[in-house]
Amino acid sequence: MVDTLFLDDWDALTRERDTRFAATLDRIFAYHPFYKDLLARAKLRRRDIKGVADLARLPVTTRRDFLANPHAFILTWPDGPTSDESSVWDVMYTNGSNGAPVPFASTSYDFMNILALNRNMLRLRGAREDDRILNLFPLTRHPHGAFARTMNAAAAFNLPVTAAMPGAPNARQPDIGNGLDKVLDIAQRTRPTILWGVPSYIRELVARADEKCVKLPWVRLVFASLDAFNEGMRADLTAGLRRLGAEDPQVSVSYGASEMQGSMVECVKGAGFHNPAPDQFCFEVVDPDTHRPLEDGEEGLLLLTHLDRRGTVMLRYASGDMGRLTRERCPHCGALTERIIGAPSHHDGFVKVSGRLIDPQALAELLLGTDEVADFQAIVEYEDMVGGVGGGKGRGKTGPRDRLRIRVAPTGTGLAGLSHMLAQRVEAVFEVTPVIEITSAQDPMLAGRGWRVRPLMDLRAKKRR
Ligand SMILES: [Zn+2]
Fold this sequence. Notes:
Structural class: alpha/beta
Number of strands: 21
Bound molecules: zinc ion
CATH class of the largest domain: Alpha Beta
Largest sheet: 6 strands, mixed
């Protein structure tokens, strides 16, 4: 079996990719509801796509296409679940732009690939045979890859893992769901070397340990997702862990996606986000408006193609994120794969709130650039929407009024005037006065987001559909 992460050259990798991609394409042309139709309309036949070199002939699939009918992206096998290629192993859910869950199906065949790619993620991040993982992702209402794949990654690397199960106690099963102090007890008992979770939550855990004079000297790695992360957090986390007795703690940041059921990871800080399974995924960058392919190093819309999937399958899929790619062999770890250099940015488009356009990325930079803010989630909704659903009742002749609500987890406890200060800052830049709600990083809305954080959720979209 070849190790496709460290092949000799791109020709060798392309050959490996094309073999897998050919089998995937055979099935797409026969059984994929969305692409069968799209390819027919584009007048493309199976023989027109010989391998990854022909990808540019295919139209781009947008997130909007996927959200409109996620079930149409699952291969429909003619004779049911008779083989590992067709039997569904699990379905994970990603958040749609309005917060509604969107299914992403994996067959048994896919699950083996998921194990392999999660194993590669651990290799690239420098995991060792003597590591012990503490899974700090909370359970979510719908199955989400962040919690589940952390368990699977440990299995694939044959490492012990403890799920700390942070979160509010379950209403039916009150023993499920642990507060911060219980999670800290679990951390002490299981002596983890790797903390894996949402960065703001890990930061809160480290601060609590410091407060209680609890030591966590075994920790050498923190696996944090890129979303809702900034370099200040990295410095803060490593300084905090040193105070808890850790010798040389490192924070490894990743760029995760439900469409991968895993993450692109750094091997060392600043080395770029490595595609952990170049035999499974192919990345491209295109012009966001014309979809013309761009050269390596140029910033554009990131596209992901599944080369070797059997459940949910996507070709040239644009999640909406922008980034720059390099295909040079990584000078640090020697991997030959695509790497995203710099931080990818969300390009979900601006959101109109009370007649003003808000760039979610700019809002995130403003808030996370404020020392007092550890994490946040912004929501656009109608003023008469109670609890985020329904709405529209009792509106005046002028139509429903928009409201920008921002839930903020602060870094410290000196909160006097924080809401007012943040509201003023947001208003100065975006000309919209937000409602600021102070919460904590354990707030289910913040802690339950998993890999992919959308800084600004538009709940009004529920009504538009
Ligand atoms: Zn590397």
